[in-house]
Specification:
171 residues; alpha/beta; 53% helix; Rossmann fold; five-stranded parallel beta sheet
Length: 171
């Protein structure tokens, strides 16, 4: 495994944490797609710019990419991956994590990417609410991804124990 995509059913599954841990353990370059997609002031980076920034990484022999962004990248990340790690944890695991992480980021004014910080109004309210998006994603991806991902080498992890075992065994 030298090219690994880490995807998740919803925010809070630990995609970035697992991606960073894999990259460190395997001494591979790590790319967080959110950092490429979310420009300053949460301005979305144009699709072509994201593809152009990612092209040299995908052409490389080794990487860990956190995310998929199918709407921007199609299957380009998945096609080039030796393994796709799908974090598919239950709601009772990821939802509390998401709330704690979001509140911590907001309270501490932590920078996420490109000067962006969590704003509670964007987390809880509106059609683009992080909470609403996470629940929609969870159910939609659990329904559609088994078929979509069937042609790829997928490692589907459904519990924190499975994630821990996977990280311990990664070589």
């Amino acid at each position: 495994m030298r090219r690994i995509a880490v995807i998740a059913s919803a925010s809070g599954n630990g995609k970035t944490t697992v991606g960073r841990a894999l990259a460190e353990r395997l001494s591979l370059p790590f790319v967080e797609l959110d950092a490429l997609v979310h420009g300053p002031d949460w301005e979305e980076t144009p699709d072509e710019d994201v593809r152009n920034q990612l092209a040299p990484v995908l052409a490389g022999d080794s990487w860990v990419i956190d995310g998929n962004y199918h709407s921007k990248l199609g299957n380009s990340v998945l096609r080039r991956a030796d393994a796709i790690v799908w974090l598919d944890l239950p709601i009772y695991v990821w939802f509390p994590r998401l709330l704690v992480r979001t509140f911590r980021r907001w309270y501490r004014r932590e920078e996420l990417w490109n000067g962006n910080r969590e704003e509670l109004r964007g987390v809880f309210w509106g059609q683009d609410s992080l909470i609403v998006w996470a629940f929609r994603s969870h159910f939609r991806r659990r329904k559609t991804w088994p078929k979509t991902l069937a042609e790829y080498p997928v490692i589907r992890l459904r519990s924190t124990e499975a994630v821990e075992r996977f990280l311990e065994s990664a070589e």
